[in-house]
Amino acid sequence: MVKNRWLLVAILVVSTALILGCAQEQQPTTPSGEGKVETLYFGAPISLSGKFAEEGKASLEGMKIAAKWINDHGGIKVGDVTYNIEIKAYDDESKKENVQSLIERLATVDNVKFILAPYSSGLTLAAAPIAEKYQVLLNSHGGASDYIFEQGYYYVVQTLSPASRYQTGFLDMVKAKDPDAKRLALVYEDGEFSRAVHEAAREYAKQLGFEIVYEKTYPAGATDLSPILNELKAANPDVLIGGGHFADGQLLAKQLAELKIDLKAISILVAPTFTSFYEALGNKAEGIAGPAQWEVGVKYSPEAAEKLGIEWYGPTQEEFLSAYKEAMGEEPPYQAAEAAAAVLSYAKAIEKAQSLDPAKVREAMNDLEFMSIYGVWKIDPETGKQIGHEMVIIQWQNGEKKIVWPESAANAEPCYPMPTWDEKEGGATCGS
Length: 432
Description:
Blueprint: H1 2-21, E1 36-46, H2 53-72, E2 76-78, E3 81-91, H3 96-108, E4 114-116, H4 121-134, E5 137-140, E6 156-158, H5 168-177, E7 183-189, H6 192-208, E8 211-218, H7 226-235, E9 239-243, H8 246-258, E10 265-268, H9 275-281, E11 289-292, H10 302-308, E12 311-312, H11 317-328, H12 334-353, H13 358-365, E13 370-372, E14 375-377, E15 392-397, E16 400-405, H14 421-425
Parallel strand pairs: 1-3, 1-4, 4-5, 5-6, 7-8, 7-9, 9-10, 12-13
Antiparallel strand pairs: 2-3, 11-15, 13-14, 15-16
Helix pairs in contact: 2-11, 2-12, 3-4, 5-6, 12-13
């Protein structure tokens, strides 16, 4: 009797799991009789703890806002089925081994066919071969390294601009403001993303006539950069580019200030795009710039899309800002916008393909082009690398992030040269 009872319980548990697992195929028809409404899951191994937690949390919120907008505006229609999007997220704890197991879980246990890549190039590079193995699409919203897209993967596509283009705009800006600027230093994290950024920037700088007077990497997780920065100070550069991610970028700026290493211009990856960067550094952040995939104040709009002759898709800038502020209590960094754009690109491609087959959706992406809050989305069909989107350069001025480059996107003039550390200690800002 006891054995039979446990057998019945087991059957019920298995039956319930099967019913839940098949929910995407067995939802009821809509009241109007126009077709079924089903849930379609987009998987997201994302850093909610560990090194990339700040960027990961912003990314996840961007995904959720985009999914809600899609659901509120008719969902994704494939034949007579309407799909509402739900983000199935797992915390990868900023660890490569976790990313790989989570991609496998999403593909095999959760039966998810469309995955939003983890944040950072290193974690995306770890995810790519697993996605390729199981033939599920992996959309990179936070992995910029060109190397990822040079491995011949078919199921991996990119939403953000590649790493090779991150610091080139800043160098163009410096040369436009000061043709005589020559002495350039590079100090950056020894990671996949930052190496790719600065290797490309180094070569581009040489083309512009810069002299590389100092170059040094530091390990991930570094807590003291003063030995490197003292060497840097002795090299007497005019301009510095560097950083890697949020924590080390903030540390780099803080110790430049402590050691009073004056430069005409500084561009640091990732960290300056967050409001918490200025909150932590205060006036020391004045004049510090950084490349951004997107920024509050960009001009992307339905009207801009119409002028280019391409479709607008997704929330407006105002709708996106309002939704993010309501959820997070602050303005969104670019990581939120690029993650939202990745979700929107999946939705457009699925509807274009009229299929949930990852291979057919990947094929539909080859000639997909649209504009969203994030700008233009268009990939190179052969590599999956993003070719439609353009970077902007932001700079902290009078306690506000301003877009200073390119001129077509700018809402402020570059502050060049930036105030010295002594001037900033005396209260100077970029506007004073």
